[in-house]
Amino acid sequence: MTQLTMTVNGKAVSGDVEGRTLLVNFLRDTLRLTGTHVGCDTSQCGACVVHVNGQAVKACTMLALEAEGAEVATIEGQADADGSLNAIQQAFQDHHGLQCGFCTPGMVMSAAALLKENPKPTEAEVRDYLEGNICRCTGYHNIVKAIMAASGQDVGAIAAE
Amino acid sequence: MGFHRPDRIEDALAALASGASVIAGGTDWYPSRGDGPVPMNVLDVTRLQGFRGITRDGAGWRIGAATTWTDIARADLPPAFDGLKRAAREVGGLQIQNAGTLGGNLCNASPAADGMPPLLTLDPKVELIGPHGAREVPLADFVTGPRQADLREGELLAALHIPDPGPSAGGFIKLGARKYLVISIAMVAALVHVEGGRVAWARVAVGACSPVARRLSALEADLQGVAVNALAGAVRPDHLKDLSPIGDVRGSAGYRLDAVAELVGRAIAQAARGA
Questions:
Q1: Which domains does chain B possess?
Q2: Which of A13, A106, A25, A9 is nearest to A63 (CA)?
Q3: What value, to the nearest 5°, has the Cα angle with vertex A8 and ends B44 and A19?
Q4: Cβ distance of B42 and A18 shorter than 8 Å
Q5: Which superkingdom is the protein from (chain A) (predicted)?
Q6: Chain mean position to CA B117
Q7: Which CATH fold topology does A2-77 show?
Q8: N- to C-terminal Cα distance for chain A?
Q9: Closest CA to B183 of A127, A43, A49
Q10: A interface residues, B as partner, C-beta within 8 Å
Q11: Could you give the ipTM of this predicted complex?
């Protein structure tokens, strides 16, 4: 076992892990932050997306020890300081950007990374950025709409489906 | 045993000598275990000094082995690297591009490695560091077969050295079953230098259609002197005779050959437009 320390959602955390422990397992099993989901377990579906040092990565193939000393952000840290939903989360609710909700934590984390890089993306840019996040319920339409709305753009012209 | 993430090469070589399994981003390392056991002794090379980043060196460019695909896509590089940049944006999704590295892609030695065709057109040498010092090998000789690379006992891939490609421009096209997040059915990279409306020289490499991605040298020779507006008819079936695609779940051998004939023309045209 190796001692691991990192910052998760602004708080210093530590634990003992094996070299082979995945970041997602450290988050879910050790820290009990179960908002980060494991869907495919092979880095295709994107339900496990978190940020490591500001960059979106898939926590289901990254080893926990690769994030030693890093700033990690998960869905649990996305709400505003007063506990209310942040703009992206609220937009997912307002525009019905989810059905079963399994992919949603990853979608929100990818959306946050996108809007940090590109605050006013086009619809095509949003769809392109979400290539690594798979949703089997919504057909993506309302997810894209929610992210466009969260970026402060008028989504009236994007038809509901 | 354990997890090693050294910044000194000496410590990395010692970990490797202890039998550590190497990761450089690790995006393919864990899924490739399948249901088998995950190694308990791991060497992460991403913090090694000089392993990450793109720098100009005297004779050209040096790309550290732990440089991520996002690093490459965002780097300020001449048009000769446009094919490599396009390939960088085709490796998995963005989250994979943020973690996965060029060195990992090459050492993995998949016949469908997205980095290989554009790098082959840039004619690089790989820098290998081992217990007996450093050596350089042309990339074309480094990958020797599917999942096989010329990595000797105790050696690490440290960097690629790319000779100055001059005022040429690159192109890259990948064919998958859908637009995003796929393993290639076939892919083509081209690097073209145009002078006075004619091809001064061209390099063309094809991936996922042979055990190791390869250049099409007969086509490259025939492209010399061809007018840019006559490129459409320049590719003939015999230019593809060195390819030996397999038929698998992603496509039949015959489909791959048909597709690649079209892709070669498109990649050359794409590169020529940038040149």
A1: 169-274 (3.30.390.50)
A2: A25
A3: 30
A4: no
A5: Bacteria
A6: 5
A7: Ubiquitin-like (UB roll) (3.10.20)
A8: 50
A9: A43
A10: 2, 18-20, 22, 41-44, 46, 49, 55-58, 60-63, 65-66, 68, 110, 113, 129, 131-133
A11: 0.90
- The yes-or-no verdict on residue A158 having pLDDT over 80 is no
Both tokens of residue B216? 């099409």
Contact B25, B46 (CB under 8 A): yes
B residues 233..252 contacting A (CB < 8 A): none
Q: Where are the domains of chain A?
A: 2-77, 87-150
What's chain B's length in residues?
275
CB A123 within 8 A of CB A142: no
| Pairing status of strand B41-44 against strand B2-4 | parallel
Find out whether A118 and A126 touch, Cβ atoms under 8 Å.
no
Domains A2-77 and A87-150 share a fold: no
DSSP labels, A4-37: EEEEETTEEEEEEE-TT-BHHHIIIIIS--TTS-
pTM of the model: 0.93
CATH annotation of A87-150: 1.10.150.120
Structure tokens at B182: 């796929």
Residue in A60, A63, A131 nearest the CB of B93: A131
Q: Note the pLDDT tens digit of each residue in A74-121.
A: 999 999 999 999 999 999 999 999 999 999 999 999 999 999 999 999
- Tokens 């998949």 label which residue? B110
Q: How much of chain A is helix, strand and coil, in % rounded to 5?
A: 35, 15, 50
